[in-house]
Amino acid sequence: KKKAFIFDLDGVIVDTAKYHFLAWQKIAAQLGINFTHEHNEQLKGVSRIRSLDIILALGNVTITQQEKDNLLQQKNEDYLAYIQKMDESEILAGVLPALQYLKQNNQPIALGSASKNARPILEKVNLLDYFDAIVDGNDVTNAKPDPEVFVQAAKKLNMPTEGAIVFEDSVAGVQAANVAQMVSVGIGSKAVLHEAHYNFDDFKVINTTFLENLVNK
Ligand code: G6P
Ligand code: MG
Hey, what's the signal peptide range on this chain (predicted)? Predict the structure, then answer.
């Protein structure tokens, strides 16, 4: 039996949320906006453009389109400088064994990320070869919680959308998976990701029996 296994990137495979945070915090500081870790939760799974709008709304700040474009460019340059230094050591614990298990059992694997930097990150941490399909921020027009990114991923794997399995650390991502009638596996706080069909604190606690059961379900 085969199931489409779709992984989110930031916060599921690698802990890049901390780099997004640092880059956004710098922007917020420039604008005189207080931006905390708690605020940052709202940006998870959210596109770059939408993230800036959320920060501006937090501070009740209005700027011109030109200023927005400049800040978006600055944010990405700062973020790229962080991910430039990434290597395999930044793969979150438990992810590699799960990918290896799925590969060994011939399960189709895809990436479903809102990030436009997904490919270079997978390259940096040397995981590109595990993925049969990649759908990222460059491919979709509708951001999570719209299911487009996951629907495209299942399609690229030549698998049905219904019953595909999605690993997500964001509320928007869990909602996107649920809308697509996929099986949502929340990675992170259960209090935050309570809409997910399954909840785990991290990949360390996901064992092969669980994965095997998902395949045979
Ligand atoms: C992921 C992250 C978000 C980020 C988005 C866009 O979904 O969780 O925090 O804003 O990707 O990333 P990008 O690399 O294109 O700016
Ligand atoms: Mg994420």
Answer: none
Segment (H or E) for 5: strand 5-7
- Hey, what long-range contacts does 49-57 have (CB within 8 A, 24 or more apart)? 50/143, 51/20, 51/24, 52/27, 55/24, 55/27, 55/28, 55/31, 56/31
Residues 100, 3, 112, 200: is their CA dihedral positive or negative? negative
- Mean per-residue pLDDT for 136-150? 95
DSSP class of 196: S
What DSSP element (H or E) covers 165? strand 165-168
Determine the Cα–Cα distance for residues 83 and 20; give it in Å rounded to an integer.
10
Q: Is the CB of 184 under 6 A from ligand 1?
A: no
Atom of ligand 1 nearest to the CA of 113: 7
Kindly state if the Cβ of 114 falls inside 6 Å of ligand 1. yes
Predicted confidence at residue 42, as pLDDT, reads 87
Q: From the CA of 50, give the closest atom in ligand 1.
A: 10
Rounded Cα distance between 182 and 195, Å, is 12
The DSSP-derived string for 6-72 is EE--BTTTB-THHHHHHHHHHHHHHTT----HHHHHTTTT--HHHHHHHHHHHTT----HHHHHHHH
Which residues have C-beta within 8 Å of that of residue 26, sequence separation ≥ 6? 78
ipTM associated with this complex? 0.98
| CB of 40 closer than 6 angstroms to any ligand 1 atom | no
